[in-house]
UniProtKB/TrEMBL annotation:
WD repeats lie at residues 377-418. The keyword Membrane applies. The chain crosses the membrane at residues 288-308. Keywords: Membrane, Repeat, Transmembrane, Transmembrane helix, WD repeat. This is WD40 repeat domain-containing protein. The keyword rRNA-binding does not apply. InterPro entries: WD40/YVTN_repeat-like_dom_sf, WD40_repeat_CS, WD40_repeat_dom_sf, WD40_rpt. Coiled coil: none annotated.
Amino acid sequence: MSIGEENHALFSDLLQSAHFPYADVFLQPLTWDGLYEAIAGITLSPVTKEYYRLQIENTPSNNFPTTLCGDLSDGDNTLVAPYLQVILSDLWSSAVLENAQIPSFTMRSYQQGILSGEIMDRFLNQQIATLKEWNKESVQSGLALDLLYRHTSALGKSEILEAAKRKLIYSDRDEIINSLIRKCKELFLLTSAHSDGTNLGHNLLALVVIRQYSISLSPGQQAARILGAKTGEATEQGKNSWLNETELDVVEKGMQGMRSLSDKEKELLEFSRIKKVQAQKDRQRNRIIRGVLGAVVVIFAALAGWQWHVASQRYQYARAGELAFTAREELKKDNTLALDVAYNAYSTLEENSPPLLILALSDIFHTQDEMPLYKSNFPHTKKVFTAVFSPDGKQVLTASEDGYAKLWDINGKEILSLPHEIEVKSAAFHLTGNKY
């Protein structure tokens, strides 16, 4: 049975209390020779060599086992074995897919998988998926990736995160961070370091973590990028810099997926919230102002419309009165023309016409005994739709279903015939009387 160093003392006490005989055998990290044998040993035994038919490139210029040993030995050796298994398993899958009969480990396939980050990327995604099954919120919020990122350096290497620094970075979420660390150790993403610190499982993982963190769209990473841009050394500090409402919303949603805020970031957040409230009040005030202005515009528009209507009515009233005088003047010469003028004036306002016009119509009507109203014959072959007098009352324009518009004098003599291809529904004179 093998037990991790952190549980060794507790397990030993249990065995001793139960008087169970045991002996400690401390497992040593893989040496260079052990690593080399783990990589190339499958080709050394005739049985495994015949069964797997694996070819391993080990020429002086392209020695795959030596290169892999060097890469795995670069960093904390405690997790060499798990990462050796990850790399060899991935290379085996690719080799079998490429040539199932004679798979091969070559420098080209190894360097392509390691330098591009494909091998470690697949491993990290696989472990993150397992981590998500354990605690969905810590992964979706970005907190798990944030924790891993804190174990990387600017040189793209793994860096020890000491316990004191970790507590400072995540001062308000010790419980979830401690749980995450334990789970990440189980998944070989993290390993223990001195002073209760933690380290990435291997240096090979660092660049992949940095890349995933930089492109992550999780709420925690988006919030961290915004805060970094607003509080960086090159940005303007003080009351002249704050988060707009969209940025503030992103930061507030992402705070649970990132490290604890610094004092400067807390001040920025508080000031941004004040500015948000002010902006909301300004928008509310502006909406009220726009509403009032809109109401004023509507009122003035209605008032202007009403005034136009009154002015139009007054004009029509005055015009009707003027035509009443004209009709009375025509009555002295021709009561039929006088009736036409008076009727045209009456048709505009009808019962609202001025009393003078009503009186004129009455007087014209009662002149029929002394001077009968005349009528003329304006013949068409079919129904006449309209017949209108010219402004001077001396001509008549008719429109008929027979497809003709005809101009007559007052006595019914045809002056002009205007043929059309279809029936003519209406005809009218221009105000000048010269056009129709």
